[in-house]
Amino acid sequence: MTQAPHSAGPGRPAADTVLARFEQWVREAPGAPAVLVPDGVLSYTGLDARANRLAHHLRTLDLPAAARIAVAPTRREETVVALLAALKAGASYALTDTGDTRIGRLQLTVLAPDLLITDAAGAARLDRGKGLPALLVDEEAERISARPGHSPARPPHPAAAAVLFTGSAVPRPVPVGHALLLAAHDGWAGVARLAPEDRHLFTGGPDLTPFAAGWTRALCTGGALVLPDAAAWQPGGIPAAVSEYEVTALHTDPGSALRLLGRSLDPAGAGRAGRRAPAPSLASLRLLTVTGDRLYLDQQSALQDLLGPGARVLNVYGPAEAAGAGAWCELSQLPRSLDDPERLALLGTPFPGGRAGLRAGELLLTPPGGGDPLPTGDLATLRPDGLLEFGGRLRDRITLDDGRRLDPHPVESALRTHPAVGAALVAPVRSGGKTALVAYVAPPDGNVPPDGNAPADGNAPADGNAPRGGSAPAADLDGLREHLADRVPDAVRLDRLVRLRGLSRTRAGQEDREALPRPPQQRARAAGGGKYGAAAGGELPGCFGYGCAAFPLAVVALLVTDLIWPGSTDLTGVPEPWSFLFFLLYVCECAAFAFGVLFLCAGRSRMPRPGPGRRLTAAAHLAVAYLLMAWWPQDNLYRLAAKHDWPRQAALVYTFNVPLMIAGAVVALYLTRRPARASG
């Protein structure tokens, strides 16, 4: 089963490249704006001259043919100059993340570049590429500026133009040739109807495919790249940047689109029946492209309502292997309105020059320009109306205890049709040797359920939720089971429910299943209680599941204090009420020690990980336990130490006080750490 657009046609000659397209605009519109930055405007002539000077400098270096150059300046303006210079020098470029140092170092490790172009700040973040040859553009500025400004005219190497990185936790490099990079650009130019008047703003990181391959949408069509300052890349800053720079084409991911566009609304702009008036701050937009993860039809429709008349919203399926040009869907492609838009995520049709096929339900994609079909790892179906429908990812399949394989996407999509659910993920959790199906749901408006029963993801933004309007009671497990009864196979049965404020997303914009918190332990009900006899779960058992074990443990600690530290609690001669207050202090220290021991034994499994990784969560677990347990031995040892016993005083300070400070810092980092997001 295959699908190809009617506009598929032969590719362009091999001599035609994205670099040649850019240089053509340098000749035809030398004074036109190419890059818009807070400091001003960089014209096509100015950008070309800077890239030529850096390319001449690269030619003087002892680089191999078809060299791989990692580009990692902290300023995006320098990033654009460096990638053009790499192409002019006959090398291939790979944009590297300098915002997330872990990702950036991983990218350099898997890429093994011949040269790293960065600046002093980027080198410090990347540890100078762990010994890689590095060119610091800010330190070499004078030498580079002395180079000639004309093109070095080295013919491009036929092997590769760029190396794109996948957005996975461990980034995978994908070499992209000149022909594919150009064919992907041509596909975008036709689908998005790009024009020289367009001003493009990318909200994702420069190393992600939308920007790493998508810069051509601006610079190969005579348009301009908008590169605002760092503050504009925050969730509330993009609408302001769109308005300030009069952006006409905004390229973002589903979570950012719904979150950022929601912030741009006039509070009085909501219309009737859940429709919203166009956002004034987005009036300049004629094009919004959303890529990186599934986008449901109701979400796409809500985004369409936010834009002015005639503006377009494109849902784009753009893997790195296709240089960001896989398939695209626009509401106008639908022959009619579809039922249950909350459960439909359409991929649409392939880009011009590409093809799509299915094998055992898996989507095979032939990139623009031809080549062998590539397995994507994603599931899809070809609808009777000729549009591809997203069906989930193979890597998300769940193996049940009876050996059956379950694709969670249909279940999650059916959950979204419940009025109290705006976003949903279904994940397996092993407990007691069995696999439980847990539904993680967020409300349409992103608010915390009124009962606050489940551990809400306090760090995750409320993205991915369709603004349907109105209010609904919080979802409960029995209600969701009944809702799914006639929508999914009978064999699918949810075991647990966790309600979240919103679903975390990865830096590439995908819903982050790895960041889902482990559900709290389930409290047992009387047999036969409820429709299915089992508890819905979601409550946190008292005393961490150990009943009131903290009380006897605190009493034991209080009784053995004088055995371990004789005389440390002696209050003889201390008048009232001070003796009572000190005794109360000793009781509190013993109680804190008891709770610390219990938290050390049973608190780790109940710590959600909305954004922090496993190591940071484990460190925070130990830090909290230490913060509770340390006071009992510390205070007793201090009371027995002489005031001028400096060796003992110093030992106590470095044994207790300094670790307490470190533990507090670890807890602060854990509480403030957010999921890694694509940012400027």
Key terms:
alpha/beta, globular, 17% strand, 14-stranded mixed sheet, 25 strands, 680 residues
Structure at a glance:
This protein is α/β, with parallel strands linked by helices. It contains 20 helices and 25 strands. A 14-stranded mixed sheet has the order 1-17-18-19-20-16-15-14-13-12-10-11-2-3, sandwiched between helices. Strands 5-4-6-7 form a four-stranded parallel sheet.
Descriptive overview:
The strands form 5 sheets. The protein has a 14-stranded mixed beta sheet, with helices on both faces. A 4-stranded parallel beta sheet has the order 5-4-6-7. Helices cover 34% and strands 17% of the residues. The chain contains 20 helices and 25 strands. The protein is α/β, with parallel strands linked by helices. The chain is globular, with a radius of gyration of 29 Å. Helix 13 links the parallel strand 13 and strand 14.
Q: Compute the gyration radius: what is it?
A: 29 Å
- Indicate the proportion of strand residues: 15-25%
Query: How many runs of DSSP E, i.e. beta strands?
Result: 25
Please state the structural category.
Answer: alpha/beta
Q: What summary fits the major beta sheet?
A: 14 strands, mixed
Shape: globular
Ordered list of secondary-structure elements with their pairings:
Blueprint: E1 2-3, H1 18-28, E2 33-37, E3 40-43, H2 44-59, E4 68-71, H3 76-88, E5 92-95, H4 101-111, E6 115-118, H5 120-125, H6 127-131, E7 134-136, H7 141-145, E8 162-165, E9 173-176, H8 178-192, E10 199-202, H9 209-212, H10 216-219, E11 224-226, H11 238-245, E12 249-252, H12 254-263, E13 287-291, H13 297-306, E14 312-317, E15 327-329, E16 346-350, E17 355-359, E18 362-366, E19 374-382, E20 388-393, E21 398-399, E22 405-406, H14 408-416, E23 423-431, E24 434-442, H15 477-484, E25 496-499, H16 550-564, H17 578-602, H18 614-629, H19 631-640, H20 646-672
Parallel strand pairs: 2-11, 4-5, 4-6, 6-7, 10-11, 10-12, 12-13, 13-14, 24-25
Antiparallel strand pairs: 1-17, 2-3, 8-9, 14-15, 15-16, 16-20, 17-18, 18-19, 19-20, 21-22, 23-24
Helix pairs in contact: 2-3, 16-17, 17-18, 18-20
